[in-house]
Amino acid sequence: MSTRTFRITVRGVFDGLDADQRAELLSRATEHDVLRAAFTPEGHLSYDVAARDAFTFRFLDSGEEEEDILEASARAEEAARAWLTERGYGYKNLRSQAEDLSQAPLGKRQRRAAARKNA
Question: What are the chain's domains?
Answer without folding.
Answer: 4-118 (3.30.70)
